Structures are given as C-alpha cells and as structure tokens.
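User: Can you write out an input/output pair for a complex, sequences first and structure second?

Assistant: Here is one pair. Inputs:
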Amino acid sequence: MIAENFNYDAPTSLDEAIALLHEYGDDAKILAGGHSLIPMMKLRFASPTHLIDINNIPGLSYVKEEDGYLKIGAMTKEVEVEESEIIHAKYQIFMDATKLIADPQVRNFGTLGGNLAHGDAANDHPAVMIALGADVEITGKDGKRTVGIDDFFQGFYTTAVEHGEVLTEIRIPAASGNYGSAYHKAERKVGDYATAGVAAMIQMDDQGRCTKAGIGLTNVSPLPLRASRSEEVLIGSDLSEAVIAQAAQYASEDCSPSEDLRGNVEYKRHLVSVITKRMINKAISRAKK
Amino acid sequence: MIKCKTSKEIGGMGHSKKRKEDARFIQGKGNYVDDVKLPGMLYMDIVRSPYAYAKIKSIDATAALAIPGVVAVVTGKDLEKYGLHWMPTLMSDTQMVLPTDTVMYQAQEVAAVIATSRYLARDGKEAVMVDYEPMKPVMDPFKALDEDAPVLRSDQEGKTDNHIWHWEVGDKEKTANVFDNADVVVKQQMHIPRIHVASIETCGCVASYDKVTNHLTMYMTTQAPHAIRTVIALVAGHVGLTEEKIRVISPDIGGGFGGKVPVYPGYVIAIAVSFLTGAPIKWIEDRSENLQADSFARDYHITAEMAGTKDGKIQATRFKVLADHGYTDASANPSKFPTGLFSIGTGSYDYGAAYMEADAVYTNKPPGGVAYRCSFRVTEAVHAIERMTDMFAKKVGKDPAQLRMENFIKKEDFPWASPTGWSYDSGDYHAGLQKAMDAIDYHGLRKEQIEMRAEGKFLGIGISTFTEVVGAGPSQDFDILGIKMFDSAEIRVHPTGKAIARFGTKSQGQGHETTYAQIIAEELGIPMEHIQIEEGDTDTAPYGLGTYASRSTPTAGAAAAMAARKLRDKAKKIAAHLLEVSEQDLEWEPGKFFVKGAPEKSKTIQEIVFAAYTNHPEGMEGGFEATHYYDPPNLTFPSGAYICVVEVDAETCDIKVRRFVAIDDCGNIINPMIVQGQVHGGLTQGIAPAMYEELIYDDSGNILNGTFMDYLVPTAVESPSWETGHTVTPAPHHPIGAKGVGESPTVGAPPAIVNAIVDAVAHLGIKHLEIPVTPFKLFKELQNVGYFKKTT
C-alpha cells in the first residue's frame, strides 16, 4: 500500500495548472479529493509521475443558482453539497446520493468534479447527473467548452476531459414547477460501490402529467447509463402505477450488468427494476410537495 | 444492579470504572509496534506468490539490489544454510518460513527485501523477478481426499494423501441406536466459512539482535509473548538464540482476536536477518497482506444431525466435520484438542447421546485455523447446535423458545456431565432466555409477524441459547507444545501502599489494566487507581500462556485474586503484630483489619504494607510481594440467551436487524461497563460472519476478495443498537466466581441472526440458509422456492 515515487505540484491558478498539464504530458494526473486516485496509486494500479493538486486554486468550490441553472464548482466537496441550503430545499437527490458515498471522512475530501472526471460507472454522481440532464464545463488552454452529460462518459475511466484540460463546473437545469428527484443504490455495506443504483428526476404539470423525466443507472453497464425508454414512457404520461412498472421494466431490460461478487445479472436486473420503481415514486412524492 | 463489596474509592469488583488505558489511546499516545524506532533500523517488505501452487524456477534480485538503499534480498535458499527455512506450527505441524522450491498458497512469502526505508523496501519488492511454473491447486477440501489428488505435503516423509488427522468423541454406537429408533431426525449440511480476524492493527515486529551481547529483543504484535519466546528458542536455539537471550516485548496491540497467536514467517525472517546483519529489522504487514496471508478462522464443513421425540424432546446429536486447514495445520488449539473445544456442541440441552467426528485436510489455501474471538472452535459447534435446534423445533411444530425451555439443562442439575465428556460448572439457562424474551416482547413479536406476513412483509425472530466453554485450562488436559495452560500474576506492593502487578497474559483491547486492578482492589482494599498493571515483557512479567479464548479472567484473573489473598494473609499477621492481638481476633473489611468488637482499633492496608518494610514481626520475610500460578480445576461455562429480530425487504431481499437483545451470564462481573463494551464488540463480530464476511477463492486458488473493498467488515452503520443485559451464575470453582465473556457474543450471535432470517422467510419454504446470508444469496434461495421467478 505504498505508491511509487511521484512529483507533486500545487498551482494556485487554473492557468498555471493547465500549463503544468501541458508541460508534463500524459504522465501527469490532477489531484482533486484524491479518494479514487490515491488508493489506485497505493495499490500501484496507477503510477502517474506528476500529481497536480488543484485544491489551492480559488473559485472552484460553490453551489449556486444562476441563469436558470444550478451551478456546482468542480472542487465542491461532497460535504459542502450535503450542507447546501439550495440542495436541501430543491435538489434532494443529492442528499440521497452523497449520503451513500463512502463515509464522512471521504465526503470531507471527495469532490463532485472528481467523482465525474474519474469516469467510473460505479460512481454515484454520473447517474445523478444523467437524470438531472447536466452539462459539464471543461477549461483548457483555449478557454472553456461545455459538454452534455450524455457525451461526457466515453469509456472505462475515460471522459470528454482531454489531456491538458480541467473539469471546472457542473450545470444542472434549475428545478422549477412540480419537480422532484431521488437516488438510491443497493450496496453490500456502507461505502461499497452500488450493486445497482438508480437516479430519477420527475417534473409534472398541475394535472399530474409528467413533463420531464430523467433516469440514470449506476454500475449496471460499462458506462453510466441513461434509461431512455423508461424516460420516454414516463414523459407525457399520467404516471400511473402501470406506467411506472413499465419504466422499471425497461430500465432492467436496457441495462447490461455483469456478474461479480455483488450479484449475478439476474439479481442486478431485478434490483434495477425494484429501485427504479421506488425512485420514480419517491421523486413524484417530492414533486407534489 | 450489581452489589459492590468495596467503596467507589477502592473500586473493586462491580464498579464501572473508566478504563485506565484509554487516556493514552484516545490521546494518540499508545505505543504500538510500528511506533518502535531504533537506531540503524532497516525495513523489510515481502515478495509474495501470485500463484496458489507453483514451482519456483528462479528468483532474480539483480534489479532490486540495484536500487540505492536496497540492502539485501533474502530467499529460502539463504535461510536453508542456517536451517531456518522451516518452523513448527503450534499444532506440531511444519510450515515454510521461505520456500526453497515450491509455493503452496497465494500470497505465500517468497523472498524478503531489506532496505533503508519502508518505501525503498516496497520498490525493491516490485523489482524482484520470480519465475514460477504454476501447477493445478487443490482448493476443494472434499476433493483433497480423492485418490488422484496431488499429495501437497510431499515434504512429510511417507505422506500418501492430504489427510491430516481424524478425531472423534462421544459414544458412536449408543448415538446410532438413538437415531435408528427416533421419531424425528433432522439433518443439514452447513459450511462455517473461512473468515479473517481483520484486526485494525496488522501484524508486525521489530527484531533487534545485538551481536555483542548475543541478545535478541523482539518487539512484536503477539497475544502470547512468553509462549512465543519459547517457540523462538525452539526454532533458533541451534544458532545460539537460547531462551534467556531472547526478550519478547508485546507493546500496545490494536486487536488480536486469535490472529496474533501464531508465529508468522515474517517474524522469523526478521529475526534471521537481524541475526545475520546485527541491524534492527522492522516488518509491518500492509492491510492486504494481513487479510490474504495471515491465519484464517473457521472453515468447517459440518454435516449435523439431531434426533428426538415427536413431542419435542431432544435425544441425540451427531456431527461430522471436514476441516480445511490450508497448506499446514497452523491452528492455535491446545495440543490434545485438534478440533479445539468443538465437543461443546451438545449445547445447553439435556440429552444423553452425542457423537462427533472430524477429519482435517490440506489444501492450497493459506494455513491457519485460529480461534477468532472464540474458545477454540466453539463458534462452529454453537452454530451447528443452534441451527439444528431450530430445524428440529420446526419439524416437530413447536415454538423454538418453548422447545428450548423444555430441553434446557436445569439449574439444579449442575455440575452436569455432557455426553462428550465435559462437566458444565453452572448455569441458569431458563432464567436467561426468559429475561431475553421479556426484554424483547417475544410473544408480541410473534403476533406482529403474523400480521406482517398478511401484508406481504417479512419479519423474523431468531434465538440462540448457547453454552460457552472458556478458561483453558486445567493442566491435566490443556497444554500448547507441552506447556501447561496455567497463567500467572505477580503483585508487588510498594512501602507507601501503591502496587504494581504483572501478568503472563496480554491485553489487546480487553482492558486488563483496569479489570486486574479491580480484582486486586477487591481482595486487598488498595484503590484500583493505585495499582499499575503490566503485561507483555518476558523479561519482567511472570510466565503465562497469553490472552485468547476468553482465558484471561478465568486464569490470570484468578491468579491475581489468589496472589492478593496470599498478601492478605500476610497482612493479617502484620496487623496482629501491630495491634498486639492474635490473628483470630481480627476481622477484614475492604481496606483494613480491625479487632472484633472494637472497630476503632484497626490498621489500614497502607499502614500494614508500610510496616512490612519498616516494622514487620520477627521471623517474617520483609517486603510485600506475592506470585501465583493458577491452574484452574475446571473450565468456566458462560452462557447467553440472544434474540434477534430482522426485517427482510420482500422485493430487494435487504436484511435489517431491527432489534438484538443479548442476555449474557459470565458469573460475577468485574467491570460492568467493560463487559458491556466487550459484548457490543463481540456482537458486531457476530453479525460479520452471519451477514457479511467470507474469504472467497476461485478454482485456480486466487482470492477474490483480498481487500476491504470486497471483504466486508461491518461498521457502526451495519450494527443495530445492541441491547444487553445479564444474569449472574457464579462459577463455583473460580476464586472470584467469574467466567470469561469476551467471546460469548461472537459465538452466540451468528445463529441468532441466521435463525431470524430463516424464520422471516420460512413460510415461503426456506429451511436453512448458509452464512453469510447476503441479500443476493437470499434472492437466489427465494428463486429456488419459486418466490422470485427465474428469468434465465
């Protein structure tokens, strides 16, 4: 549990960090909260020669509503999300999700940006962001660009963040009207990756008809998965029990889990179905409040 | 409430005194082995085998030795020159220190890298190139006995199979006769899986050999420092390291649970390297090494049977065990007990016939068989008997609580001779179970269960009423490598009435510095705050066999009381001298002797002790010091009545422990707060194998969950709010009437939990569930009975 030798830089501006990434090339990694990267280094699964610690760069940590978006700075720690008043009031899905991420010690360090940029389908925030329809802001040498969450995850530990770039902000269309969201994962014990996890967002008109829906799935496919057929059956519907059952069924059919110590394919599909149903219902009941 | 004989100031038995050791632990001032730093110290890391069974074709250390700061790479061939490449296990089997040609399990030690820093040692380890020729390992213990199975221990002369030993106890014919004529027989195959103690501190040592004085000081994480010193002398005596030249110091230990009883190869390598270089060598395992290579616990495959009448009278049990010991039998059992105290498996019930047999086999798994918070295989036995009792109750259609009440050994029938040869010292099983049932509202729960089932919800209630057997042990039966299992206490009271007491045991979190002081305070009336307790240094402490198997209070705790009584006898003589009366005229109350009928004429223990140094009677030895080696006349038999309530999610199969009531009877209680803490910890280590923990290997011998990511140690989140209580049935033969308690909850909890889960889904056709019962496993079982549809 001892990492190989590495060099460490702690720039104080984004420009400096980006310049260092270009200087060091492919062997450099960004250190955010470190709770995915450091264990991989200690197990010698990863051996970057340079770590660029971006914790000293000001202005990357915030939760705010602005221009019709909920904006979360990439270096916002899980604990700051947990304690945010905006989150408590309108985006309960984050309360569900962050509480299921490891333990308080990890949440005191782990960042939302890091959770996404690690590009692991087993992480919890990717599914949440899919359900909420997030955009991701990426900053490079030539300025900022924005990538939709559906184009963000590209492969195992691979995202739209190119070398020499830094994920800087997450933007979520602001909650409006009858809006509710929820997340749950089945896990073997606290701190475990999901056996299966489901994020749901529902928006309804005053007649109870679904106007917007988002369903994201955790750790049941190689990439974080949007359950598109589930969303389609929900949008425009009256959210009846039968519709929700159909959405749950589609989610369990459309995911592609693999067997591991957490369970076989059958069990994981079963869990996706049960949790999808429960999370849609939870999102609906929150939307009604 | 517990009645105390001493004042709060004296703090004898029954007082919930805060733990004396905690001040340093909670302030980060503990002194663990990794805190030991010596001048010129070198660091060791160990190259381990990626294969479960392979020939070593070559070991190339060139690249490792080229790293500046890497001092040496040690292989089995190097140790062979000194005859140090093999060592005995505590069960008189043999174990490689480092292999010369073959590796026998994944993560086995292959070579050691010595460097000037911990980091360089790790880099050096990465650079050692080992060329292996993998062979097909034997992983299934049942297949290990097949005719065509490779003979794994070809190092043993004349060995033609993988069988280690056969053991049996009880009356085979009589038992068979009862089974043949019984109304009802239940039978179940069950596996008590391989698990790991996973203590928070891993194992390690600093071996420091002084070439000038020819003296070895060994700082190490050991639960049995004296026994380990003897073992080191047996292993290394031929190179000049005889017992008087070895000092073992066991500093603060962060959890042992049986895993710090054995001698691991790393210790021996560190000694050998220090012996050869003259430099102190530090070796500290990392978490994965600890989990993957150090001794496992359990791994018993049991075929259990119970016979009885149709109206619910238990008449006989029969257990057949296959024990998977891995590559060598490295159990830590008393020598005459290859299955430990498994024969306690007739449980708390009154019947006359039992027969148990066991066979042990070698496989290509890490060696072991340690008693994980368990008095030598009692956990396996209790699981079998408590599961069978529930299955039998179900078969005859009786409530499991009622059936237990009807079959318990009665309070008045103690001492009770068990059909497997034990003499249970005492117990009141009816009172314990009744108290647990009242605490949890057992009958109310049964009503609620029916109501919930009507709504499609699953509630389960599980009982375990176990008998433990702890305090090894009486010297006619109990020894380790021939050394009798008594234990010791030495009390020295200074002229000002303050004391130091030393013991042959070694606390790893049990709170000995507090409880031993309370025992002495109880007997001598010296305030427990004035009594310093020391353990773990073989140069200063009296010889003892160490702390495991809940033996410290039954043995060393008794020794403390007996040594203190010797001192009280001496105190009486001195008091008579000082008060100028005869001894017969004196009476004792905690802290002083006074003259009968004239209580104003008295001498405090402090005045008496001072006189022992300043004004003792003629003809009496000066000083105030006593030693006692306590050889227990019998083991102690703690018991418990545990009731667990679980809720099972009918859709996800999630299992939630709603309540858990544990009523323990450990005889007289020394410190109620410490006992409660012990029970809380033990219950959490009971929920672990019941619902979470199991070391899993694939057919190629790879461990599939060799890190804490997949080896699921439960945390506070998984633990329910434990509800504890007690009944008090003192051990009649023990000086202070105490029994061990540290392990009762680990032993008793798993079957209560499993019985509850089985009970929750029994109406769906489930009869038995193997541990750990995970939601995934339960899902599959519920598919098998048709509750969930199979889709593939």
